[in-house]
Structure formats: C-alpha cells, structure tokens
Write a structure and sequence with these properties.
279 residues, alpha/beta, seven-stranded mixed sheet, 11 helices
C-alpha cells in the first residue's frame, strides 16, 4: 500500500502543474448533460459536475465536510462557499496541498479549508465527525473498497450523507473478454489504480456497511465528451511542452487517455455515482 501511495503521490506531484496550466483547478471530468450532448465550456462542465452531484444527492446544507481526495481543493472551495462549510481535505500530493493552500488564501478560505498531506484512510485516526463525506474521482485509488466505505460510514454523523463518484468497470457477468481485461489493465497501470469494481458492487458494499437510502447510477454518457477535449489539449503545443516538463508519469497518463476513451465507448469503463445516508 505504501508503494502504491508513493506512486500516486509522484504522479500528482509531477502532473498537477501541467493540469493547472491547461485545465485549471478542477482535476476531474466535466458534466455535459444527461446524454452528454450539451455544448459548454469545459471549466463550466467541471464545475457543473460538482453542482449536479450535490443536486442529485439532494445535499441542501453541510457544516463539516470530509473531502476524501481533494486535489487542489476545487470541490472544497465550491462546497465551502455554497454552504459556508468547514472542509477537511486529504491528498497524497504535497504539491497539490501547497497549491490548494495558496488558492484558499487568495479566496479568503484559509480558515474554512484544512488540507492534510496524507492517505485519506488515515482520517479514521482522528476524532472528527462530518455531516457530508465527499469523494470525487478518488475511491478508484483505494485497494480495499469495503474498508473505504466503512471509514466513510464511521466518519459520518447520524443523519449525514456520503456522495461518491468514481471510475468503475462494468458489472459482471458476463465475464470480461481478453480485450476488456487488457483495456482495464492499461487504465489501472497507467493511472496507478488497484483493481476497479462496478458501481453495482459499491452499492452492495454500502448496504453491507450499514448505509441507508442508497442510490447508484451510471453517468458515463454525461462525461464522455471530456476525454475528447483532454486528448485535444494534450496534442496542442502547450500540452506537449508541459508533458515534456512533467516527465514520464504524466506522459504515461497522457498516452492512457486513449484507453479511457475506448473504455467509455465500449462500456468497459464506467463513471459511477452513488449517494447514501447514515441513519
């Protein structure tokens, strides 16, 4: 696990500045409508993904939020401003944490958002409780999904809500073909992911953990246009020079973009979303 965390930290330490230069502070996919047909600015699409998730999960207020895998704090700042909430974020990347804190100070949020450079699983060693657990494109990095959901359940106050959005694989059966196995391997290898599971399996694990009012869905169609946009940006001069400066981890990630696109196109890779409550 330590080696995996080191790989993930190195990947984000070396690639984050490139992403910021080309895409901005939201290090996740964008939302392009239910069927992925909406034409919009990609930064707007990334912000829309956050707001659509909050709307879909019926999050009407939040006071203390755990942002599990906070990146440079894009979601944290939107949620903090929306609900006047205090946010505790976790990232493995010291580079991301330093950038997040710099932006937080510029926006006057340094007293509302706290960033820890640590494994999100270490949140279990604190006494903090939250009324919202937010996990946007980070659960895929955790090997033990059952342990992750148990952590989220334990950290929630009674009446609290979890919102999770993550890269998934399709549900089985039917079993994966050899081509699908190879495709999933490429994605997992290049993005330093342990084995992925389906959103249906996340739902089963959430039920086993004790969550109630669980709703899961596949939002793959809503985010597909994002990958074409990222591929185009990588092929532009700014993207190419940025990749060369970032080094091999970022370059490998860029080459893996085509695998993500193919995964979504074939339905092998999915974007799963889930919300649940602790009652």
């Amino acid at each position: 696990m330590k080696n995996l965390n080191q790989q993930i930290a190195n990947f984000y330490d070396t690639s984050t500045q490139l992403w910021l230069d080309v895409w901005g502070e939201h290090m996740h996919q964008g939302y392009y409508g239910k069927d992925g047909a909406d034409k919009k600015d990609h930064l707007r699409a990334q912000e829309d993904l956050i707001n659509e998730l909050l709307l879909w999960a019926d999050v009407r207020n939040a006071h203390h939020v755990l942002d599990a895998g906070c990146g440079v704090g894009g979601s944290a700042r939107i949620i903090s401003k929306k609900f006047n909430a205090a946010i505790t974020g976790y990232t493995l990347s010291s580079k991301q944490a330093a950038i997040a804190e710099q932006i937080n100070r510029k926006q006057g949020l340094e007293n509302k958002i706290t960033i820890h450079v640590d494994d999100m699983m270490e949140a279990g060693n604190t006494n903090q409780q939250f009324d919202l657990v937010w996990s946007l494109e980070s659960a895929e990095h955790i090997p033990d999904k059952e342990k992750l959901l148990q952590l989220f359940y334990d950290k929630l106050q009674t009446g609290g809500k979890m919102v999770l959005a993550t890269w998934c694989c399709r549900h089985t059966p039917p079993e994966f073909t050899n081509k699908e196995h190879r495709l999933i391997h490429h994605v997992q290898h290049n993005y330093h992911l342990p084995p992925m599971i389906s959103i249906e399996t996340y739902k089963v694990l959430a039920e086993k953990t004790g969550f109630k009012n669980i709703v899961a869905a596949d939002w793959s169609k809503s985010v597909v246009p994002f990958w074409d946009a990222v591929i185009r940006s990588a092929l532009k001069w700014k993207g190419i020079t940025g990749l060369l400066r970032a080094g091999s981890p970022a370059i490998k990630g860029a080459f893996a973009l085509r695998h993500m696109k193919k995964g979504y196109r074939t339905g092998t890779i999915r974007f799963g979303v889930l919300h649940a409550e602790k009652l």
